[in-house]
Amino acid sequence: MIKCATIENQRGASNGRVVSTSGRSGSFVLFNEINVPATGIDKVSLRCSNPNKRSAIHDLEINGNTAAPVVYRSTGKSTGSGDNFGMVSFRAKLQRGYGNVIKVSPRVSNTGRVELDKMDLDWFAASTSETISAPGQE
Length: 138
Hints:
This protein is mainly β. It has a single domain, classed as Galactose-binding domain-like (Jelly Rolls, Sandwich). The chain has no helices and 10 strands. The protein has strands spanning 2-3, 6-9, 17-21, 28-36, 40-49, 56-62, 65-72, 86-94, 97-106, 114-122. It has a 5-stranded antiparallel sheet with strand order 1-4-9-6-7, with no helix packed on it. The chain has a 5-stranded antiparallel sheet with strand order 2-3-10-5-8, with no helix packed on it. It is globular, with a radius of gyration of 16 Å.
């Protein structure tokens, strides 16, 4: 779900499109129904582009709880080849199942366009003896 943001074609994006955020008050990008096979601390990575000359900051909420802000360093203007994407990673405590929600909201005091390409999740099982089933096999 997005609010006050647009979906735009972007050469070099993983699926050819990005969600372009603005610094407008009340804007956000919501990643919902994130499926995690086991409760634990997971690494979340956002592939993004920040064409501004300075870093941009988004406030971060994980399952309704405020977390540390996300800082997107400048990646420079695109040359059209997708060479201006970078990764921003953070750790998040996520719960087993589909009920996880991650929300990023631009700080109005630090306006600047940020283009979000995709989110990757690297999960870590609670213990090495835990059996994790593949999607659809639960």
